[in-house]
Amino acid sequence: MTDPLVRHVAQSTGLPPAVAARVVADVVAYYGETVEQFVRRRHAELRNRQHRNAEIWTAVAEELAARPFAAEALSERQLRRIVYG
């Protein structure tokens, strides 16, 4: 266990190092999405929950602002182009 983040997670949670490594890998993968991947995934998830596009674009734009990747503010039109373009 040489990764400082894995070591920190293991020490702060009491998880075994192997489990801490899996948790860190899962979190890194989750936040490793590009803006386009995130927008497509969230649009599909919200459509499957019967949300309307007007609600979806607002929710996705708000979620993008809170994500830990550098994402410029996208207009509704830009969001639609990612999904449908």
Keywords:
mainly alpha, 2 domains, 5 helices, elongated
**Distance between the amino and carboxyl termini:** 43 Å
Binned strand content:
under 5%
Report the count of strand segments: 0
Multimeric status of the protein: single chain
Query: How many distinct helices?
Result: 5
SSE arrangement, N to C: HHHHH
Number of individual domains: 2
> Approximately how much helix is present in the residues?
over 70%
Task: Please tell me the overall pLDDT.
Answer: 91
The secondary-structure class comes to: mainly alpha
The whole-angstrom Rg is 17 Å
Anisotropy-based shape:
elongated
Main sheet characteristics: none
Sequence stretches where pLDDT stays below 50 over 5 or more residues:
none
Task: Describe what you observe in this structure.
This protein has 85 residues and is an all-alpha fold. It folds into 2 domains: 1-30, no CATH class; 35-84, no CATH class. It has helices at 4-13, 17-30, 35-48, 53-66, 76-84. α1 (4-13) packs across α2 (17-30) and α3 crosses α4 (53-66). It is elongated and about 45 Å long.
